[in-house]
Amino acid sequence: MKIILNFIGIVAVVLGVLGIFLPLLPTTPFLLLASACFARASPRMHGWLRNNRVFGKYLRDYENGAGIPLRGKVWILIFMWGSMSYSIWRTELPWVRLLIMLIGTCVTIYLTRFVPTMHINKK
C-alpha cells in the first residue's frame, strides 16, 4: 500500500506543479492529495513537501487549520477565473463551457465558504 500511496503522491506533485503553468489544471488539490498520501506512506516525502520553499507554508497552514490568507484567495480566484474565461472563450462546445463554469463556481464556493481565511496581524 505504501508503494501505491507514494506513486499517487509523486504523480499528484507532478500534476500540481504543472497546474502552476497550465490553465484548468488545479495546483492546490493535487498538492493536498500528495501531502495526504505522503503523510500515510512516507514521512520523509511528507516533510519535504511541507518544508518546500515554494508551497510548503501554504500546505502547513492548510493542514494545521489556519486556512489561506485573504490575499492568496483573491489571487487564486483571479488566476482561476482568468484561465477559465480564456478556456470558455476558446471552446465552441456549449457543454464544455457549462462544465468549466460549473467547476469554477464550485471551487469558488468551496474556497470562499469552507476554507478558513487566515488573518495576518501586522504590527
UniProtKB/TrEMBL annotation:
Transmembrane annotation, as ranges: 7-24, 95-115
The entry's keywords: Membrane, Transmembrane, Transmembrane helix
GO cellular component: plasma membrane
Pfam family, one: DUF454
Origin: domain of life: Bacteria
Name of the protein: DUF454 family protein
